[in-house]
Specification:
The chain is of the alpha+beta class. It has 8 helices and 6 strands. It has helices at about 1-15, 35-45, 65-75, 100-110, 130-145, 165-175, 195-210, 275-280; strands spanning about 220-230, 235-245, 250, 260, 270-275, 285. α5 packs across α6. The radius of gyration is 21 Å and the shape is globular. About 40% of the residues are buried.
């Protein structure tokens, strides 16, 4: 199961290597940190821009907006039959007749959200990073239960910042949902802006896509050859890993800042493969112990 997750994470990190994606928003240049994610989410109709042609990557996301985003990301069916039991949620009134009450009700049905109390959702409140990662982890666990998630406890934020959100942050980080975010510089209780939300949901979609496809960007072939000698039998197992896209493959950990060669002792707790170019682009530096390619 762990091997399957690592292969999926390899696919995510390789897909994160992009070349000037076609972004239609005037405030999201091709070299923007979240340009690829914004382009992906926009093309799938999960997050739209504004009438003035901007995306607003730094603008906050409300809880009711995120309910719609995560429902669309996970492909959750939503209809008028999804009745919202939270008393503070408006019924319709927007261009999308299912927003916000039916999306929120669908999320509650899948136990993605439990509200801010048994009877309230706080739909207009700006959503925090901690709340986003918890809802994302719940969504994958409930909607895609066959996808193996990894817990790297403690996360960069530590598990003690909150008894509910701390453990889910460790799962989100270990499963690759937070790749591309400068976690050490971010407050888990801070408001998560649209650009960061797009990056997280983009990572989730890459994991779902990579585990559902019959072929992935990384393939591992294991062959076993038995050689019979006069008095002994020797079995040799060879493993070949091919990375689509070219360039050497290096390995990073879920919490470190260095990239490594396979077999480095610092990979004992976690080992996430990615291309050398991607490692450098994300700010990783070479390990001084195993001396990986530079």
């Amino acid at each position: 199961m762990r091997r399957s997750l690592l292969l999926a994470l390899a696919a995510i990190t390789l897909l994160l290597v992009w070349v000037s994606p076609l972004v239609a928003f005037s405030d999201v240049p091709g070299d923007h940190s979240y340009a690829a994610a914004i382009d992906d989410l926009s093309s799938r109709g999960i997050i739209n821009g504004f009438a003035d042609g901007t995306f607003g990557p730094g603008k906050p996301v409300t809880r009711q907006q995120f309910a719609k985003m995560i429902a669309r990301t996970m492909g959750i069916p939503v209809s008028e039959s999804d009745v919202c039991h939270f008393g503070d949620v408006q019924a319709g009134g927007y261009a999308d007749p299912l927003f916000p009450d039916n999306y929120i009700a669908a999320c509650a049905k899948y136990e993605i959200t439990k509200g801010t109390s048994p009877t309230t959702f706080s739909p207009g409140a700006q959503i925090s990073r901690a709340q986003v990662v918890t809802m994302v982890v719940r969504a994958v666990q409930k909607v895609q239960p066959d996808i193996a998630l990894a817990d790297i406890s403690p996360s960069t934020w530590g598990n003690n910042f909150d008894p509910l959100h701390g453990p889910t942050a460790a799962i989100a980080q270990g499963s690759g949902f937070l790749l591309g975010l400068p976690l050490a510089d971010l407050d888990p209780w801070g408001v998560m802006p649209r650009g960061e939300v797009a990056q997280v949901l983009h990572n989730v979609l890459l994991l779902i896509d990579s585990t559902s496809q019959s072929t992935t960007t990384t393939s591992t072939t294991t062959s076993t050859t038995s050689t019979t000698l006069p008095s002994t039998t020797t079995t040799t197992q060879a493993t070949t890993t091919t990375t689509v896209g070219g360039g050497p493959t290096v390995y990073v950990t879920a919490t470190g800042t260095k990239y490594h060669k396979l077999g480095c002792r610092y990979l004992a707790q976690s080992s996430i493969p990615m291309s050398l170019a991607q490692a450098k682009a994300q700010g990783y530096t070479p390990c001084g112990v195993c001396r990986p390619p530079v």
